[in-house]
Amino acid sequence: MTSLDELLASWNEKFRAYEDGARLPPHHDHCLACGPDNPHGHHLTVQRRGDEVHAVHVFDERHVGAPGIAHGGAVATVLDDLFGFLLYLTGSPAVTRKLEVRYDSPVILGTTYELAARVVRTEGRKLFVEADMSETGGPTVAFASALFLRVDVTHFDQGRPR
Ligand SMILES: CCCCC/C=C\C/C=C\C/C=C\C/C=C\CCCC(=O)SCCNC(=O)CCNC(=O)[C@H](O)C(C)(C)COP(=O)(O)OP(=O)(O)OC[C@H]1O[C@@H](n2cnc3c(N)ncnc32)[C@H](O)[C@@H]1OP(=O)(O)O
After folding, report:
1. What is the domain range of residue 135?
2. Which end of the chain is more exposed for a tag (fewer CB within 10 A), N or C?
3. Which cellular components does GO assign to this protein (predicted)?
């Protein structure tokens, strides 16, 4: 797995201008939601679309809650991580301080959903963000709002092995 030092170095390079429509890089290879090398993960792929980030996602049996239905925690994971892609557009690292998810309808395994997230307001270190999820052209099945707080890179030193 990539060391924290390598990750910090690569992270700096990830904060650059991305063209509209560009695919945004995963947070790191083993990120639970977007890491391509995490066998338990969601393998979320995310694009910039204007000031928003978008993803198309299908939950599978690894993320089951009630039979046939995605676990609410899995849905929250994906929505939270999608917010983490807005940071590429805002240009600085931040972490979730508060996350609220509204589950409007069951999220069905094997069904394709579209997700979009946006920054609705910033106040100093605070980023207020929102995201929604639906089948194409359908009603919202889940809606999330969150407060992210900008942090210095030293925040991530707390994850070093003890
Ligand atoms: C450039 C290099 C970056 C290096 C990165 C390298 C590796 C990492 C790689 C990838 C990971 C990075 C990003 C991933 C992105 C997305 C993944 C999804 C997101 C996550 O998975 S992320 C994990 C879960 N997350 C946490 O692990 C946070 C744990 N937590 C803390 O570490 C602290 O909690 C902290 C630092 C967040 C804040 O601590 P703090 O002491 O600095 O700030 P404090 O609490 O004082 O709040 C400040 C102001 O917010 C107001 N405030 C607070 N709560 C409020 C509320 N509920 N409503 C309204 N206002 C509120 C206060 O009232 C005050 O307001 P005011 O300043 O106006 O008084």
Report:
1. 4-159
2. C
3. cytoplasm; membrane
User: What is the complex's ipTM, to 2 decimals?
Assistant: 0.92
Strand partners for 94 = 150
Q: Give per-residue burial for 115-147: e unless 16+ CB within 10 Å, then b.
A: bebbbeeeeeeebebbbbbbeeeeeebbbbbbb
Q: Does residue 28 line the site of ligand 1, with CB under 6 A?
A: yes
- Indicate whether residue 42 lines ligand 1 (CB < 6 A): no
Residues 6 or more apart in contact with residue 40 via CB below 8 angstroms: 32, 62
Report whether 106 contacts 126 (CB < 8 A): no
Query: Which candidate, 142, 89, 133, places its Cα nearest to that of 115?
Result: 133
Q: Which amino acid is at 24?
A: L
**With a 6 A CB cut-off, is 117 part of the ligand 1 pocket?**
no
Atom of ligand 1 nearest to the CA of 12: 1
In this prediction, residue 23 carries a pLDDT of: 97
SS3 34: coil
CATH classification of the domain holding 155: 3.10.129.10
Say how far apart CA 151 and CA 125 lie, in whole Å.
8
Question: Per residue in 23-39, pLDDT tens?
Answer: 999 999 999 999 999 99
Element (H, E) at 89: helix 72-90
